[in-house]
Write a structure and sequence with these properties.
With 950 residues, the protein is mainly alpha-helical. It is built from 50 helices and eight strands. The strands form two sheets. A five-stranded parallel β-sheet has the order 2-3-4-1-5, with helices on both faces. α19 packs antiparallel against α20 and α38 packs parallel to α40.
Length: 950
């Protein structure tokens, strides 16, 4: 009875999990592509694949069209199920989300053994989901604790670009049990540790040279598949001309299949794949029946094909039969499921077909796209519907679709991927003027949807058009309320709300270009127009006030913080949890500028806890925003390991969120990452993070990007240059700054001056440094931005020290100490280096006569600890030949491991999370080249590391 109940429970769990997969995942990605046409035998390749099963990983890497998918599908299905359970995943660009990628991996395994993998998949999908590291460990242990072997084939892996996916997959491969074999099919080599895997004999590789068809295979292909026997000379010519490219052979075979005595290929056709494809596709199309040609050309605009969709595009009713006919004729149609519901064309074949369509029937292209758009719209696939509408140049219909998404856009629930937003922007920039001046809601929705990736001038054009139309419409309403009907009043309020949204968004944009007065005035105007119930836009207006008060000529950090607190409270009170978290994180950011570390830490922690309540998925990404600023507080307080761990997690979360503002969150995340790496003296990593920051910015609204950069990264950029020895580069930057026109907000220009001061000090020109510093220090003090004022007083102290003005230097340092001590600043002093340590020692000696100097003692102790840590690390690296030096925190963890502490006990001892302990342990194992704790302790002792608990 007990076993029956357990079986029923497992079955019910499996059913529930399967339903979750059906709702969240694309089921056709798990289907092995069906191979319905005749194949030639390629025993040399199947033998290589069979031999590769002895390694954890097989890499099948070659350009498109070399038959990777066909080979793997046929071979995988030929394996005995008793030996290997075949798990197949076909990837696309959306699978770059690490959690989604691993959900597909788990689901593929779960489909083979539901009773074994369903509990882990359910746990990974739970509200309090496993971390990726915990998932991998659990999966490895689960696979190892069984006798069943699994073959996981991942097709189109070249579409994965996120480093976290590569890193986590590399970990699984490195620790993979014998029960799992992974095959990656890709067009380019993935950024995995391939050299190390080769050295450790963990990988087998099939590459282009192996996949090329030999002369013998070319002969076999034409004889068995095409039914033509080529002469020896022709076989060699065809193999040479196509470079053994299987798709080229297939196209050539189709063009020659009706010729009894095939002639040599025309001499003007080169061996280039693209030219062969263009030539042979034309030959293939010309030889097909008219109805087949028509179907191929009309449906090539579709990324995926289904009978109902093709019926809509073709305006016919027999698409299912035609798709089956194409599949059987091997006309480059790939079935995506066993039910023959969805298909796709080979990508290069579709490209060639599309080229032929544009050449032969250009007038049909927009008509076909419009039909596809209508079908997608009827089936609630709005993104595809919008994109096809733009391809059709059906501007009014596209506007209808975008307006349909207006409210979700305002509510931060637009879930379009970032690459889709850039594609939409390209289309929207081509809109005809008459459309802009006839649909105010459409103009507003476009600006709201794409403000992070669209040029400022284009946004202003959209908003100007919306404002003009709404203002004109409002003037036509009666002004006397008593003479107006209820419907008229509601219609007027709707227009006023839309106009209020225009002013709120315009205020937000103006706040980024330094027009603080204009932004504040627009915000007030927006609030006056908005109905009390329109809380979402009221929060947006308050957001603009926050930015304007801080960064513009208003120069009032206290007003900015108060505005942010009010907006956050309003958002939370009206159920806008995502907006509340965003506002709380933003306010914490400006608290840091105001020197309020305690308040920033408290508020960001409240926002993190709010986002981690059991709620919708979008909040898990939003919570990365306040985590960024929590990490900055930890960095300033010298908790560098914790800060690094937190900002890395924050960046991952920001990458996952579908919110329009996620690019801004990522920029700030990389800013804090730069600072942490600088504090850790990891200058190469800091430079890499700076490059990531700049890469993101190149695709954004440049006013928004420049605003973020001026707020947070101008000075950090200079620090990276100086740390990396690029003084000449920094000097040229100052020269260009002085001769060029200065843009941005007053605060942005202030930060540029501070950056110049650092460069002048690096050049030993303290007089110029002091000259440029005075106006900035005066402005920062007036705005009560004590976080920046502390930095400027420290720079002033260093400049006076360089001039050997000891009294003035110590006075400046004393002022910085007065402001910093109540909030516990540390890194601002320590990162200034040895000259600052000398000044602190002099100040401590001077102040010691007056009593205790606890804060100075803390700072000087931190300097000493830093010297000891980096000294030990350097000594270990040089003398003890460690593969990679252990950090201070990792040494602490290693000592506790040696004393027998569990992960929980170590976490409690060091006041960190258990997941963080696991990450440190994994890093220790990796650096020491060991597999377990006992080996780690022995290796450390052998290297002479002091890890005793005394």
């Amino acid at each position: 009875m007990e076993n029956d109940q357990s079986s029923l429970a497992t079955e019910e769990l499996s059913i529930n999990t399967s339903m979750a997969i059906e709702n969240q995942l694309l089921a056709t990605k798990f289907y092995v592509p069906r191979v319905s046409h005749t194949l030639i035998s390629r025993p040399r390749l199947t033998a290589l694949l069979q031999e590769s099963l002895a390694c954890p990983l097989t890499l099948v890497s070659a350009p498109a069209g070399f038959g990777k998918t066909t080979l793997l599908a046929a071979w995988g299905q030929s394996l005995s199920r008793s030996q290997y359970r075949l798990c197949w995943i076909s990837l696309d660009e959306e699978d770059n989300d690490p959690r989604l990628f691993w959900t597909y991996v788990l689901s593929a395994l779960q489909m083979q053994r539901p009773e074994r993998f369903t509990p882990l998949l359910t746990q990974f999908q739970a509200r309090r989901a496993l971390s990726l590291k915990s998932l991998q460990i659990a999966l490895i242990n689960l696979l190892a604790d069984g006798d069943q072997h699994y073959l996981l084939i991942v097709d189109d892996y070249h579409l994965i670009t996120k480093q976290e996916v590569h890193t986590t997959l590399a970990y699984l491969i490195e620790h993979s049990p014998a029960q799992l074999h992974i095959i990656l099919a890709t067009r380019v080599d993935p950024p995995l540790p391939l050299s190390l895997q080769r050295a450790n004999r963990q990988i087998c590789e099939l590459r282009t040279e192996q996949l090329r068809c030999t002369v013998e295979e070319t002969d076999a292909f034409f004889e068995q598949v095409v039914g033509i026997q080529l002469s020896g000379g022709m076989s060699q010519q065809v193999t040479t001309r196509t470079e053994g490219w299987l798709v080229g052979l297939q196209l050539l075979g189709l063009s020659l299949s009706e010729q009894a005595n095939p002639l040599p290929l025309p001499q003007e056709v080169s061996g280039s794949q693209r030219y062969i494809l263009d030539y042979l596709t034309e030959e293939v199309l010309r030889r097909q029946p008219e109805e087949v040609q028509r179907f191929l050309l009309y449906t090539c605009i579709l990324e995926q094909l289904s009978a109902p969709l093709c019926d809509a595009v073709m305006q016919q009713k027999d698409s299912q039969q035609m798709l089956k006919r194409l599949e059987e004729a091997n006309l480059f149609v790939v079935s995506l499921d066993n039910k023959r519901c969805w298909y796709r064309y080979h990508a290069l074949f579709a490209e060639a077909l599309h080229y032929q369509l544009e050449q032969m029937h250009p007038e049909l292209v927009p008509i076909l796209h419009h039909r596809a758009s209508l079908w997608y719209g009827e089936h609630n696939r709005v993104t595809q519907a919008i994109l096809h509408a733009f391809h059709a140049k059906e501007w009014q219909w596209a506007a209808d679709l975008i307006e349909r998404e207006h409210l979700p856009l305002v509510s931060y629930t637009w879930g379009a991927a970032k690459h889709v937003l850039f594609l939409l922007r390209q289309w929207l920039e081509q809109l005809p003027a008459d459309l802009l001046y006839s649909r105010p809601c459409f103009c507003l929705a476009c600006a709201q949807m794409l403000h992070t990736v669209t040029p400022h001038s284009t946004l202003q054009t959209w908003l100007n058009a919306a404002e003009a139309m709404l203002t004109a419409s409002l003037t036509r309403f009666p002004q006397e309320e008593d003479s107006s009907t209820r419907d008229t009043l509601q219609a007027r309020q709707k227009l006023q709300d839309l106009l209020g949204e225009v002013f709120a968004l315009r205020a937000f944009l103006w706040s980024h270009i330094g027009d603080g007065g204009g932004a504040l005035a627009l915000s007030e105007h927006a609030l006056a127009l908005l109905s009390p119930e329109n809380s979402a836009i009221r929060v947006q207006a308050a957001f603009a006030q926050l930015i304007a008060a801080y960064a513009s000529s208003t120069n009032d950090v206290e007003a900015a913080v108060e505005s942010g607190l009010r907006a956050g409270a309003l958002a939370q009170a009206t159920g806008q949890t995502a907006r509340a978290i965003i506002m709380m994180g933003t306010t914490a950011k400006y608290m840091l500028g105001g020197g309020r570390l305690h308040d920033a830490q408290r508020l960001s922690q409240e926002a993190i806890l709010l986002g981690r309540e059991p709620r919708e998925f979008v909040l898990s990404g939003v919570v990365g925003w306040p985590m960024v600023w929590q990490a900055e507080v930890l960095r300033e307080r010298n908790e560098l390991d914790a800060a690094l761990s937190m900002v890395q997690e924050a960046i991952k979360l920001c990458e996952q969120t579908p919110l329009m503002s996620s690019l801004v969150y990522l920029l700030c995340g990389y800013t804090v990452l730069i600072r942490i790496h600088l504090s850790r003296k990891d200058f190469d990593q800091a430079h890499s993070a700076l490059e990531q920051f700049q890469q993101i910015g190149t695709r954004m609204n440049q006013n928004l990007y420049m605003h973020i950069r001026s707020l947070f990264t101008t000075v950090d950029q200079v620090k990276v240059w100086l740390a990396c020895g690029k003084l000449d580069h920094a000097r040229r930057w100052v020269q260009q700054l002085d001769i060029g026109e200065r843009y941005g907000t007053p605060f942005g220009r202030e930060r540029e001056e501070v950056a110049c001061v650092r460069i002048f000090l690096a050049q030993a020109r303290p007089d110029l440094a002091l000259q440029r510093l005075e106006p900035a220090l005066e402005r920062g003090t007036a705005g009560k931005r004590w976080g920046h004022v502390i930095e400027m007083w420290l720079l002033r102290a260093l400049a006076f020290q360089m001039q050997q003005e000891e009294t003035q230097a110590l006075d400046a340092l004393s002022e910085a100490i007065r402001l910093a001590e109540p909030q516990g600043y540390i890194r601002s002093f320590v990162d200034a280096g040895a000259p600052m340590e000398t000044l602190l020692q002099q100040l401590r000696k001077q102040n010691l006569k007056q009593g205790l100097t606890l804060y100075l003692d803390t700072l000087l102790t931190t300097f000493q600890q830093k010297s000891m840590v980096y000294g030990r690390a350097e000594e270990q690296t040089q003398d003890q030949a460690l593969p990679e030096s252990l950090s201070k925190r990792e040494l602490q963890v290693l000592r506790l491991l040696a004393s027998g502490g569990s992960n929980l006990e170590i976490a409690q001892e060091l006041v960190i999370t258990v997941d963080t302990v696991k990450r440190h342990v994994s890093n220790i194992f990796s650096k020491l080249g060991v597999q377990n704790r006992i080996q780690a302790v022995r290796k450390a002792e052998g290297l002479g590391l002091r890890i005793d608990s005394h």
